[in-house]
Amino acid sequence: MIRNLLLAGVALPVIAAGPALAQDEAAPTQEDEILVTGIRETLRTSIDVKKRETAIVDALSTDEIGDLPALSVGEAIQTITGATTHREKGGASEIALRGLGPFLSNTTFNGRDATNGSGDRSVNFNQFPSELVNNIKIYKSQQADLVEGGVAGTIDIGTLRPLDYGRMRVQGEIKANYSPYQDKIIGSSAWGWRGTLSYVDQFKLGGLGDIGIAIGVQRNSVSNPEETVAASTTWTACNATALVSNNNCSEVTREQAAAGTPFYLTPNALTFRQISEVDQRDAIFGAVQWRFSDRVELNLDAQYSDREFIENRRDLNISEMRRGHTAVEYDENGIIQRLEGSSAVESTATHLSRAEEYLGAGANLRWDATDRLTLKLDGSYSRTIRKEVERQVRLRTDQFDVNGTRNFFSTAPFASNNIRVPYVYEVLPGNYAPTVTFDPRFDVTNHDLFWDDARARRDESRRQNEIWGVRLDADYRMDGFITTLAVGGRLAEQTYRDYDVRNENTYNPSMAEDQRINQLCRTQFPQTGFLDAAEGNSISSWATFDPLCLMREYTGSEDPGLPASLLSPANRDVTERTLAGYVMAEYESELGNMPIRGNFGVRVVNTKVESIGLRSAFDLINNPDGTITLDPIDDSFESVTIKSETTRFLPSINAIFELEPNRLLLRAAAYRAMSRPAPSGLGAGRTFSLDTSGTTVEDAISEIRANGSPRLKPLMSWNGDLSLEYYPDRDSLFAATLYFKEFSGGFIPFVTNEEFVIGGQDVSVPVIQTANSPDKSQLWGVEITLTNRFSWLPAPLDGFGGKISYNYADTNFKNEDLRLGDVLDPLTGTVSEGIIPPAGLSGFSAHVVSAQLYYQLDGFSIQGIYNYRSNYYQDFVGSNAQLRYVRGNETFDLRASYNVNRNISLRLEATNIFDSPKITDMPVKGSIRQYHYYGPRYFIGARFRL
């Protein structure tokens, strides 16, 4: 309903403006000489950028810093046609273009590749403050001088060049932040703040030329509370004809499913999670532009961002969702509607901290060697380091409570030593959150029930992504049909290294000691109204504990520190070396009386990958709680190096036909593009998944997954774009683009046996990896943009304006589920049919809508920003994992400002006003995995300019 009303509110005035837009462009009026500022200036500048570019480009640009319509770069980008975001912690993070996932895009910062702490090739745009960025370009079609580009497009973030800015500016902004969800956290403040200060100036140095400097800093201190119910990331197809009331369900095989054996899909575990968080980010952006003469110019720029957040998590876990099933009800797709089961129940307290540091720097020297020849030399460096430390203590139910009183669920008809609680799980019609009902005699808020098998776990992970690059370009201006000939090359080295290590022990001291710790570390449930907006949720609180108190009392220290060795079979060490070159010609001519212009060229990209993995023997450890742990034997580690190499030729051509000069343009583009796998996806490590119910080594190791496939090749595509653009005036645009992509190969799992020494035994275990499939697939789509200032309305309604964009795409691309989808036999090349259907491209949404409606009068402006994205498949970064779908979602943000005078303005901003949740399914659509709430956020502040 919200969507329909808003779309109507924006679209109808634009359509009604048709007669006005159809008029010939009038001669410049006095209004054209008036200084245009604010939202209208941003949209006008963005239209100008699109009009000037040779390739098919959409942009968000402003002459001023701090005027992009969003709180972060990610939220700004999603106002651009065809761009949409994946939201994390309530804010925009990774970007999908034209409904295509982040891994299909290439992201640059001032034209240079940027690193990421997630292990993929996209960028966490939430890391960068929009107040220190003043232009964003998205290249939808490719051209040769982009060197690499991406299948979906290239996103380039640009910062201010101070000499080009041309004036001195001191600007500061302070905002107070209010989060209603944080107000639900007991004993905490719902308020935060962010402050920004920037300075731009120019100086004459006499014989040394002119120099300009720009520097901006920001401190952002906010809270990002979350509340969620989520299932595990591993799902099983259970054989519905072989229910076992006192053990795990039996998995159905591919052959059984193909023969018609009924099955239902269940996760390994289910978690109710309450999160309170403190989030702080510091950012510094700087630039120096030194023009030695009319022929020589040096540009230096650097960006630094340091973000740290601390989460306190309180979890209620149903840890054995595969166990004790009876009375299972499911639909024709295997989606559970209701089941009865029994599981150990856990209260888990976690303290998690993450620090992410980004550093980017570059130097660009431009030399106009002659009136025709320009040389440009560029060097760049980018590094992201993300470190995460998680300290967690789990307490389980037992046949007795902590006072030694026998629990009801350990008596008949259950075994005398039973620790499992009966429950009913159901998803009621119309509800998104699953309803979990425990036997009424089991009180989840009773601390006495959670005390046994205390497991203290410390996980530490560190990811480092680093890129060095150097680039040389030469442009030669010519006379005739070809106006410029450009050649260039780029040499780059990217490294990705990580580790993920764990200290873990299970403790069973005396009952008296458990009782003491239980009493000492109890906490009040830290939130009111937990998941009260989630229809179907049945659990509003449970017994919680202080994680650091538990860690200290069981281990003797709040932080036990790293294990003795950081070596692990799961570690990744990837080096990727790229050598790329291009030649491109720009041309200009006439076809009859119609001006035409464009470019054509070819890129050649050679990529070499070297991935190092570790292999070791393992000790098999039987823990006191009955679980099994594999412990690598340090002195048995061996290094395995896997290398691969590819060379790809990427031709491209862009043409612009000026059907009506400067007003009606027809653009056409044809090009070949490539997108490489994520750096973390090229790892050579191994990750072990354990089945704690196994009685032998072979049974215990349910599977081994490769945490990357070094021999994965780039995803290639042939592409065609056709765009019609109409520019009636400087504030108006109508654009429609039709595009087509043909992909060479998708992705498919394959399984090979590898030998491991476990517990002194030689064990052959299937290892799941990912390969390029031989299939071809297609995608086609259309995107439409309408922008108009309603100047044809009488005053004061002529202050209204709007923009609406829509992207529709369709594809037959296939991504198979690692455990339940089609699987390739690498020896025979045959494919075994999977149990569940495949997904499409990661990040692919069929429908993407962005709409803006603004009103600007004198010093007052207000803008509503609406975004909608239909459901999409989202892979798990850096590992071979199962299919996950994000349901369609919509958000509405609001921005308002009032200029008190030319120096001071007041500002109000609100994000996610209607509290849209994020809902995910797994491993098929409709099988709910997670229901996630962030809540809205409000900002009020003031800005000064001198």
Task: Kindly summarize this structure in a few lines.
By secondary structure, the protein is mainly β. 8% of the residues lie in helices and 53% in strands.
Topology:
Elements: H1 2-16, H2 18-22, H3 38-52, E1 57-61, H4 73-77, E2 83-88, E3 91-97, E4 105-109, E5 112-113, E6 135-139, E7 153-158, H5 162-165, E8 169-178, E9 191-204, E10 210-222, E11 226-231, E12 235-239, H6 254-258, E13 263-267, E14 270-291, E15 296-318, E16 326-330, E17 336-343, E18 345-368, E19 373-396, E20 421-426, E21 435-438, E22 452-477, E23 482-507, H7 511-520, E24 522-523, E25 544-545, H8 547-555, E26 572-591, E27 594-615, E28 618-622, E29 628-632, E30 638-660, E31 664-675, E32 686-690, H9 697-700, E33 701-706, E34 715-726, E35 733-744, E36 747-758, E37 761-772, E38 776-789, E39 800-811, E40 823-824, E41 831-832, E42 847-857, E43 860-869, E44 872-873, E45 885-886, E46 889-899, E47 904-911, E48 918-921, E49 928-933, E50 937-945
Parallel strand pairs: 4-7, 33-37
Antiparallel strand pairs: 1-6, 2-3, 4-5, 6-7, 8-9, 8-50, 9-10, 10-14, 11-14, 11-49, 12-13, 14-15, 15-18, 16-17, 17-20, 18-19, 19-22, 20-21, 22-23, 23-26, 24-25, 26-27, 27-30, 28-29, 30-31, 31-34, 32-33, 34-35, 35-38, 36-37, 38-39, 39-42, 40-41, 42-43, 43-46, 44-45, 45-48, 46-47, 47-50, 48-49
Describe the structure.
The strands form 9 sheets. The chain has a 22-stranded antiparallel beta barrel. A 5-stranded mixed beta sheet has the order 1-6-7-4-5. 47% of the residues are buried. With 946 residues, it is mainly beta. A hairpin with a 2-residue loop joins strand 4 (105-109) and strand 5. Mean pLDDT is 86; it is low at 1-33 and 412-416. This is TonB-dependent receptor. It is found in: Cell outer membrane.
